[in-house]
Amino acid sequence: MSSDYSTYEQEYDKCLSRVRSFLSSNARSLTTLRECERLLTEARRFADNMEQLASESGDAFKIKESKRRVEQDIMPLLHEVDRAVKEREMGSLQQQQQRNELFSGYRAPSLVRDDNDDDDDLEMLIRNSEDLLRESQALCSESEQTGSETLTIMGRQRDQLYNASSHLVGARAYLTEAKDVLQQMTRKALKNKRFLQGIIAILVFANIVAFMAIVMKKRKK
Predict the structure, then answer these.
(1) pTM summary value
(2) Three-class SS string for the chain?
């Protein structure tokens, strides 16, 4: 049970770490916020699983800790994500129009242009550039975290392979030692067998000599 609880706890921490990374980097596009919602849902599921395992084992401290995670960790982040989603949805149409103008390179011809139009265009480009930079920063942060997690997993696998190799070396040494012991026992058994055969031959010869001596004695009488 403890290994399953630890696994859920690790996955829970990973989900919250990614959500906090997204929110702290100010990369709050709708795509990023939807991803935050998904991560928080996963975190809630892991917290429920931890609470269920704690209830089955009767651990009151872990039960209380699991409930605290939902109330103090997940719910504040979920409220912040919901608030950001509503703000984004309210201005999503305007942002979509600005992005279309930015990436298409097309501007509707205007017969009259003044300095205010140029200022508006420049401000729009700056805002969109800032959004793109924030999203790029969030993606870089996520990639860095994924790389770190990958290195950690590879390190654990390397340790496991090293331990397995050490166990194989130990087992091979035990097998070699057992083989030597068996060979010694075989040689010792062969020596004992030959010794017993020699004793039997001596006894047989002694019996024959004794029998012949008895026969010769009877003949002399």
Answers:
(1) 0.40
(2) CHHHHHHHHHHHHHHHHHHHHHHHCCCCCHHHHHHHHHHHHHHHHHHHHHHHHHHHHCCHHHHHHHHHHHHHHHHHHHHHHHHHHHHHHHCHHHHHHHHHHHHHCCCCCCCCCCHHHHHHHHHHHHHHHHHHHHHHHHHHHHHHHHHHHHHHHHHHHHHHHHHHHHHHHHHHHHHHHHHHHHHHHHHHHHHHHHHHHHHHHHHHHHHHHHHHHHHHHHHHC
